[in-house]
Amino acid sequence: MRIAIGLYECFTSLDAMGPFQVLSALPGAEVTLVAAKAGPVTDESGFLTVTARASFDELPDPDILLVPGGVTTRALVPDHPIVGWIARAHPTTTWTTSVCSGALLLAGAGVLQGVDATTHWAAFDDLARLGANPVHERVVRRGKIVTGAGVSAGIDMALTLAAEIAGADFARTLQLIMEYDPQPPFDAGSPAKAGPHLVDQAFAALMQTMQQLAARQ
Length: 217
Known about the structure:
The protein is of the alpha/beta class. It contains nine helices and eleven strands. α1 runs parallel beside α6 (153-166) and α6 (153-166) packs antiparallel against α7 (168-178). 41% of the residues are buried.
């Protein structure tokens, strides 16, 4: 089972590594980090660099395709090589998946036209503009397309996928091995819970990060 995690400069690390922790444990899994070209890819913090073992052209037909998000994803549509890779690979995948604003890349590739999907709460308008139907759910499955909401929801998405592939008991066992039993110290993980003040602060922080990344590139 060939699993390809598509990367690009300034991806969000947990969007990729959370699902990686789950999916790499599936029976027969062969996980490959892929990018426009093989070699180092740096996340949005600028502090973490991982190695893509293959280019998009070298793995054109994965069984499972996963795309992480990042604050720069809207700028990658439609011209970044990852968009074309998704469009070419999707017709033959068993599962096509995304985490956070990675859904914008699926939508930019035409995968989510008229399809229910979720993404980070701050990217809902962008997702709708690209033709998808945004849904306020943690994980959304429509046929072979599975999308996860913001960042930490990638683990939920991957466990959902693991249950579909290997059964609920297998997925539960993985959850236990990971001790994935969230008990956050604050009840502020969604706009509805956080309130307008924190939403404004979060938007400002996201915009500042986008500006800093644009200056870095």
